[in-house]
Structures are given as structure tokens and as C-alpha cells.
Amino acid sequence: MSTALVTGGSRGIGRAVAQALAARGDRVAVHYASDRDAAEETLRSLAGDGHVVIGGDLRDSDAPSRIIERADAAMGGLDILVNNAGIAPLESNRHRPDETDLDAWQSAWRQMVDVNLIAAAELTYLFARRLIDRKAPGFVVNVGSRGAFKGEPDYPAYGAAKAGLHAFGQSMAVALAPHGIVVTSIAPGFISSDRQAPKLEGAAGDALRAQSPFGRVGTPEEVAEAVLFLSSPAATWSSGAVIDFNGASHLRP
Ligand SMILES: NC(=O)c1ccc[n+]([C@@H]2O[C@H](COP(=O)([O-])OP(=O)(O)OC[C@H]3O[C@@H](n4cnc5c(N)ncnc54)[C@H](OP(=O)(O)O)[C@@H]3O)[C@@H](O)[C@H]2O)c1
């Protein structure tokens, strides 16, 4: 049995990951930003005992320290970190350069880079330092995005932050391998988390499904299955990988 911190575990992909880890027998710290009720709902849905919820808005620079400290204390040491929390593309943070003023541009960049990259980097640092002190192996799984490769013209800060997260994961894979810490990233295409449900209606939904030759979009449960593998000893030789997870909707050269 392992212990895991899943950031952004209150809903969507993070909730499915928390559920899959708990079903495997792991104890899970379910992190959320503001929606404690949703995090409690995730908690109630988890198999087994010993799970906790931990809040913290990753736009706050001291949040990563507080989150890791609380999760570490509650779990008696952490073995797995899933960097899943993210400020996702929403109509409210859309920032195409040709239709966005400078204030909105700066705000989108600060928030997306702060949460989706810098906070994940700091959580990884704090998590790894504790593992190194304990001389224990461990796993970091970053939830990146296909957008890092395909381009995000409406949300360039999102694409850039996710590309940074992938690159960060590769650097950490090299730096942390001597300590027995495996670091991977997964780069999902469109995934049908609740947040995305409205986009799947009508002709726009058909177009999204048509992006993949399978004729559908991915599910949070499928991402969770992949995270189960990536947080297991079988994934050791995958360390440094950025796993495309998009139903062949975008092939990298
Ligand atoms: N769904 C997709 O199509 C897709 C595709 C590629 C990559 N991804 C990535 O997968 C991850 C999860 O996606 P999702 O669709 O499940 O997202 P979601 O439904 O929007 O959930 C986002 C999660 O992140 C947390 N969060 C948001 N802002 C935060 C902040 N400032 N500080 C700390 N936590 C924060 C939320 O907590 P609260 O509930 O408390 O707000 C929530 O748990 C994200 O990193 C996203 O970029 C998703």
C-alpha cells in the first residue's frame, strides 16, 4: 500500500485518479482549491480508509509548502505525487492576442504559469526532498496536455505552461533517478471531465469527437488507468517519458 497526494482531486480527472489509487489500495490525500464540498464528495467515494482532504489555492505562493506539510503529516509520508490541479481553458480566461487587452493577457499568463507550472514544480521539489531525506523511492506524475504540442491559439499561456511542465518533468526524471524517484508526464487530449461536458453537445461536440479516428473523446477513468501504471514500479523505465494520451488525434513527429 502506498500513499498519494492528488492535486485537484475534487473533480474531473483528479477525482478519477484518486478513486483508482484508492481502489488499488493506496491511501490518498485529495487536494482542492476552493470547492471543499466536492473534495469531500471525492473522499466519500474512495474505497478503503485513511484518506484525507487538503485545501490550498495554488495561486498563493506559500500554498505548496502548506499542502505538502499537511499531506505528509496526515499520511505519515508520501510515496506518490500527482500534479493534476490546473487552471484550465475557460471562456473567462481566453486570451487570443488579437482580441485581448494587456491586463487580461498578463492575468492569464500569471495565473496559468503560477498554478500549472510553478506550483507543480514547487510541490515536486518539496515532495522529492522529503523522499530523499527518507531514502525512499517514489513517483511523480504530471498531468500535462496535448495542447503543449498542438498549440493553443486561444490559450497560449496554457499551452506554454503545460509544455514547461513536460520539460520540467524530464529534467526531474534525470535529477531524481539516482534517488529512485520516477517522474513521468501524461499529455491528454480532450477528456470528458464534467467541466468539458457542455462542449460535447451539438455540432461542436461532433467536431471534438471527430478529432480522434476512434470517433470519441477520452474519459477521466482512462487517464486514471494510465496514472495507475505510471505510479507503479512497472513504470520505472518510463521515467522521463511524456505519454501522448489523445486517441491518435495528434501525432508528434
Ligand atoms: N479535461 C481535459 O480535456 C484535459 C485535457 C488535457 C489536460 N487536462 C488537464 O488535466 C487536469 C485536470 O483537468 P480537469 O478537466 O479534470 O479539470 P477541472 O475539472 O477544471 O478540475 C480542476 C481541478 O484543479 C483544481 N484547481 C483549479 N484551480 C486551482 C488553483 N488555483 N489552485 C489549486 N487547485 C486548483 C480544482 O479545484 P476546485 O474544485 O477546488 O476548484 C479542481 O480540483 C488539469 O491540469 C488540466 O489542464 C485536462
TrEMBL record:
Report which superkingdom the organism of origin falls in. Bacteria
Q: What is the lineage of its organism?
A: Bacteria, Bacillati, Actinomycetota, Actinomycetes, Micrococcales
Domain Ketoreductase, first and last residues per copy: 2-189
Q: Which Pfam families does this UniProt record tie to the protein?
A: adh_short_C2 (PF13561)
What does the UniProt keyword field contain? Oxidoreductase
* Family recorded in the similarity comment: Belongs to the short-chain dehydrogenases/reductases (SDR) family.
The record's section on PROSITE patterns has: ADH_SHORT
Q: Does Iron show up as a keyword for this record?
A: no
Output the Gene Ontology terms for molecular function: oxidoreductase activity, acting on the CH-OH group of donors, NAD or NADP as acceptor
The name this protein carries in UniProt is NAD(P)-dependent dehydrogenase (Short-subunit alcohol dehydrogenase family)
Query: Matching SUPFAM superfamilies, A to Z?
Result: NAD(P)-binding Rossmann-fold domains
